[in-house]
Amino acid sequence: MPPPADIVKVAIEWPGAYPKLMEIDQKKPLSAIIKEVCDGWSLANHEYFALQHADSSNFYITEKNRNEIKNGTILRLTTSPAQNAQQLHERIQSSSMDAKLEALKDLASLSRDVTFAQEFINLDGISLLTQMVESGTERYQKLQKIMKPCFGDMLSFTLTAFVELMDHGIVSWDTFSVAFIKKIASFVNKSGMDISILQRSLAILESMVLNSHDLYQKVAQEITIGQLIPHLQGTDQEIQTYTIAVINALFLKAPDERRQEMANILAQKQLRSIILTHVIRAQRAINNEMAHQLYVLQVLTFNLLEDRMMTKMDPQDQAQRDIIFELRRIAFDAESEPNNSSGSMEKRKSMYTRDYKKLGFINHVNPAMDFTQTPPGMLALDNMLYFAKHHQDSYIRIVLENSSREDKHECPFGRSSIELTKMLCEILKVGELPSETCNDFHPMFFTHDRSFEEFFCICIQLLNKTWKEMRATSEDFNKVMQVVKEQVMRALTTKPSSLDQFKCKLQNLSYTEILKIRQSERMNQEDFQSRPILELKEKIQPEILELIKQQRLNRLVEGTCFRKLNCRRRQDKFWYCRLSPNHKVLHYGDLEESPQGEVPHDSLQDKLPVADIKAVVTGKDCPHMKEKGALKQNKEVLELAFSILYDSNCQLNFIAPDKHEWQMLDTWTRPRTSGPSCKNRAKSGN
């Protein structure tokens, strides 16, 4: 007869004693269970004790998370979080440097637990740590020369504990003083600072900027781009990552009127070329976190184009009209201008109308009207002028070449430029906020200060070439644009390292090649729809489905390492999840670092019987998408979320890195998909 569902069998450790095997009744109050354990070892004052997981997490057992205790779990009887917090609060104020250092080390470790964190914060622990950072560093400055390693470790553990405590979201970031901000900023601005101190200081500054408008302004006054640049020129990729994260945070939170100014400063400091040299082209692989930060910087940079993209042209604005006159002048400079007399006014208008038609504008009389639709607004005109000035020979060739063709066969430069600019903005998602999970940066956009304009120049020449290859007429305009979009998208997926390489990729994707690719894909699709194939498919379907089932189960048994994702800042923390070989239990647990290969299931601390899974929900129905925070505001993240629900009010929360991975992890709800891969886990009570 199976044991009652409310009874779990566990082992409980106590230092200096043999572990006890006992049955825990989940219906009993946790305090009663602790008292029973204490009585077994003749320990008085049971209220000063608590139970915690005996694994590397050391998380306390509470009434909220006690349902996570499974059969076979190893627990430890230990000092209660309130007692522990009180003791550490006193120990970190010790006059003994060694005792203080040991206490701060313990605090940095225990602060990861939200139960302990709440108790320590209740003792005004955050204020104590900030005071130690503000004044304590000066107190020990005289000892730095003779105790530099000790001092560095002490400050590192202090900042680590601070970061861990703040990560729980219990204390508002708005509560910190200018003195504390200045002190943290000084660690970043000072050369030769210990790596661990620098890393945590950068992380604190990033969180300050992202979580408080007031702190953004104060941090922006203390930190300049020039002071951050040297950290990018080093060799430590983690420091480089945190540095770019701070730059991104300052960029993201800057008022609209300040962003262009900040972009100009970044250009003056040659940030792009420094990143290209010391990060992208460095002799080492770019990890996922760095790829994400580069992607965010790429998105924020392109989002500077949004203002021009959404600005309509004012047909009465002479400065804007002069840009169109300049396009005409560059293209038809050889033609003589009529005398500026009243008798030649009609000739002038007639000539302008003729030239605007050759330039491919829809409105030949007043081409300014072509730029009144947004997007792409004035951005299209900016691109056309850039092409005309910086690639003048190609510009003149395209315009004159098309003006000499029959009307129906000419590729209208004006109309093409407007539609192409709109298409490129859609491809690069100009105006959209960066995704929390995307790593899709393109190295080639870091190779030129005017990368979007150069991107346009390459693509407008591609469009003209494809138009000729298709022998298109004006009626084929939309078809040509579809082919060009396919060419650009296929070239981008290869992640060219430079704009020249991107151009070479496009050369190999001629219209003829696109037709071959389409034909091949269509033939493959048609082959699978033919009658003999359908009959064979129906015959072997049961065998194939069983094979797919086994493959997916094998994928789940193999398991995956996932990156934890925090709504306030991304972290280099990992956890692993895998299915047991008998397919009955999900094993999961935290890892100190990303593993090389599989993690044995017996080394994972937490277990979830598959039989206990009540439901799987996706998208907006996920508990972590209903919480307050930045994640739920991102539509893309919402589409990648899913949760496994078990017991009462308990869940494992996931966010897939992309749609392809989401379809794989959809195996929990639909038999046609594969195993899980995600970047976030949260359990109720954590």
Automatic annotation (TrEMBL):
Its main location: cytoplasm. The keyword Transferase does not apply. InterPro entries: ARM-like, ARM-type_fold, ELMO_ARM, ELMO_dom, ELMO_domain-containing, PH-like_dom_sf, PH_domain. Residues 319-492 form the ELMO domain. GO terms for molecular function: SH3 domain binding. It comes from the Eukaryota. Pfam families: ELMO_ARM, ELMO_CED12, PH_12. Involved in cytoskeletal rearrangements required for phagocytosis of apoptotic cells and cell motility. Acts in association with DOCK1 and CRK. Was initially proposed to be required in complex with DOCK1 to activate Rac Rho small GTPases. May enhance the guanine nucleotide exchange factor (GEF) activity of DOCK1. This is Engulfment and cell motility 1. It is found in: Cytoplasm; Membrane. Keywords: Apoptosis, Cytoplasm, Membrane, Phagocytosis, Phosphoprotein, SH3-binding. One of its GO terms (biological process) is apoptotic process. It comes from Ursus maritimus (Polar bear).
